[in-house]
Specification:
By secondary structure, the chain is of the alpha/beta class. It is built from 6 helices and 13 strands. The structure holds zinc ion.
Length: 266
Amino acid sequence: MRFKDLSQLKRPKPLEITLGSLPQHILMAEYAKHRAFKINELVGVLFEESFEWYGFTLAHKDHPELIIDIGLPHNDLNLQDYTTLGSERIAEFQELLTEDLIINGWIHSHGALNYRHFSNIDEKNHFTVLDFVAARTRKPLAKKEISIQDLVLLEKDRFVEKDLEKGSVCLITDGPITEAKIMETVYGSFCYSIVIGDEGWHEQEIHCRERGILSGHMIVRSKAADIEFVDTGRSLTRLDISELSDEVEEKIKPRTDPPPELIERM
Ligand SMILES: [Zn+2]
């Protein structure tokens, strides 16, 4: 057999239909931003010293892309516990939230340090958070054809065991068919990571995971992202600040004896 054009040999591209997309940049309510930087300020005021803390970014479950608030868990003094920000700890915090709120990422402060990017340990924490929040931020991104070489079509009640030895996948239908496409849903999840400093700077990334429900094919990627601050009509009131101050005092404890690894860790 001869081909006039070699392009005829190419396998047809699998069919793909887009159903949705993951956020390309971060949306954050002005209120949440002010709250984050207010925590930095309160730490300085209450403990007369600047140091790091971490919290979770929160969203309404019907709008997981928009950060509307900052949740402050009990911050650990213990070096080991903090570096391994575990899913149990995140779960504990999620349980305290009202049902309409979800965690969609994490935020931490490098305090007065001028270290304006994520550290290696931060990178590990991103994926711990992503693992935890993935189920809550999950949405269908596409229907994608799974190319199956050697698909065998069988008819219900009309095949014998021997027929099952053939092919890589078999599709059993209730009527005679000659052709079938198998389309799987590709689900996507995301989480946000934000790092801030006392001087007002912030850096942020989006971490995404895409997974084919049938093939199990998974892609995980991270990218630096812009942040868009949104006026949601809510502002940080005196009462909010006073309550936040109590929360900071209760949940963030100054490290009286900073371990030498502190800088390296951040
Ligand atoms: Zn850090």
